[in-house]
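Weekend entry, working from home. Most of the wet-lab plans are on hold until the incubator is repaired, so I used the time to fold the two sequences that have been sitting in the queue since the last round of cloning. Logging both here for the record. First:
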Amino acid sequence: MSKRTLSKSKRIRSSEQPVQQTVDVSIIIVAWNVKDLLQSCLKSVYEQTKAVEFEVIYVDNGSKDGSVEMVTNEFPEVKIIKNSENKGFIEANNQGIEVARGRYVLLLNSDTIVLDNAIAKSVAFADAHPRTAVVGCRVLNPDKTLQRTCFMYPSALNMFLSAMYLYKMFPKSRFFGREHMTWWDYEDVREVETVCGCFSLVRSEAINQVGLMDKRYFVYGDDPDWCYRFKKNGWKVMFTPQPKIIHYGGQTTNQMADEFKLQLCGSKLTFIRLHRSAIEFAFARLFTSLFFLLRIPYWLVVGLFSRNGKSQPLLTAKAYLKAGFYSIVSWKNLLMNSDILKRNL
């Protein structure tokens, strides 16, 4: 297959306008300035994917590190969507979904390594469970330890437990560890509320019914929102331990760590604003503020007594102080795409 560069599609994925499906799975990879990781990810996809027909769609979010040129030269069969600016993880994935031809769409992070035919195993599992919209697999850290990738939906209670670090103090408790499911060993097939988007196999039929990811999230928060909408429409979200990948994690977000931490909490608030009551939303804002304010003393101490990199901990403390204030007074300022939210929330 020859390489094709695609402009952004204007079509909205819907049951009235289906894409002609000629492959089993469309693998969508979004990246921004992570050329080496992207190269390793693509290499693993082509080396480790057998017994299924697939296409790869790469959406570049305005990289300046030669990522597009690398893909063009080394993986000429990949379809490329090149954005002139960073449109965010969610909108970029939607661009890929709009042109995907697969029975399934696999959202695969650029900082992952596919192991032992994981994609074909996930497709086989989904085929055997026809009411499943989303399939998640076992995700490993680079040292092969388990990376927890299944979660409960955001809620005021879960945000309070997170703010107080109770899930870390009592990881075996089904109550205190509820949001992160810290009590579970990921050894069995299980229906869950949310699976992490670093590897999400999604049924195209379900997307046609429910619609694309909500671009108001920009980055983070898309996983629980989409899974919540699938389950409201009668679909299941499942985890299976047999397929495995390695996920390095945070390679893009580390470039703006404090901003992305605020975005993560703001995305949780967005979910509660859209799907929960006004009273729960008010408590969630309070607990988000508590989350940031409780951590300021730690970063101040680290900054004051650190010999190296003293300024960064103090900048983090400053960012958390602003976040604690924003959570109560103007929560949308936690979000990188606050201008979009001001018009749509």
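Second, folded right after the first finished:
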Amino acid sequence: MKTFIEKYKPKTADEIPQDIEKLKNFIKNKKHCMIYGKTGSCKTTSVYAIANELNLEITEINASDFRNRDEIEGIIGNASKQQSLFQRGKLLLIEEADCLSGRDDRGGAQAILSILKDSAFPIIITCNDPNNEKLKEIKKKINVVEFPPPKITEIVKILKTLAEKEGVITLEKDLLVLAANSNGDLRAAINDLQSNIMEKELVNPEDLREQKSEIIHLLNAALKLKSFEAHKSFENTDISLDDYSLWLDENLPAHISKPEDISKVYEIFSKADVIKGRIRRQQYWRLMYYQNLLLSSGISISKHETNKKLADYKRPLRLLRIWQTNMKNAKKKSIAEKIAKEVHISVKEIIKNFSSYKFIIKNDEIIKSLQLDEEETGYLKNYWPEF
């Protein structure tokens, strides 16, 4: 099952809550451009929508994948000179350029500057912080476009449209809560919408808002402070350690910069997980005190330095992905049960060799006897595109 982000990815500029005419003109005229804005402000989506309208091929490269000048020149430089595979126009998209930070990236910005001069195609660079020291010289040589966070009213409008497409029952006030809670991050708002739909209804948006407020307090204590007293932040909260762990796991890499700090923090995280396993096996709940201590004060004091930037925590998507996988497997199981009834083989055996039944299911008489519903047929079409 696809996420709403993938399923409803905008195809045209009209679907994006940004004024992208300036960006579109730069791309049309083959001019390089830097787009900056917060996460979820539609930077990458806009580039893809414009490329789709102008029939351009995109080569996307993430700056965080390249750690030195030679790699950047070898991979990005070559991509900037190669013609489109399909004889179309082309643009090069460099994502997260502000990830070019640290000692290993020396020369990285200069390499990109050199590529900008020689590229046969327009180069679009995205970043969150255009004032990053490593981007200072690039910024002087390139057109710059700001993407402000989408307005709450625009986010509500988009959420309402997606809900209607999914046949979900919603109230305007509930969508407003999701939009306000997203802090201008449209992607986060859409993910929150999907993860809070149950049986075609949007549930508990107010609870979500209150939970996130408490979670931010807990995460700040662990990630933004350096104090053994961080564990005391749990004294007046109803947030479970399991929920907190998911949030912590999702946000650790973005809020701890030094590799040695990340390594130490994940070592502490793993020890807390060992304790969690012992609690489950032994049912000895007093050990939760030590699990709590490690995940709060342990992480807080383990860092050499703290990140003082304003926190923009992302909601964990692991539970959503697990639910999506379970839904997908449920469809597979229901189809297998119907096949088992017809061919007199165990459901377990059919699931194990599911691909082998493609040609049997194609038989019109078998399809009719299986009585597959619309969702099951849709699953088979995704599983076997030629079905």
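Plan for Monday: verify the second prediction. The mean pLDDT is 80.
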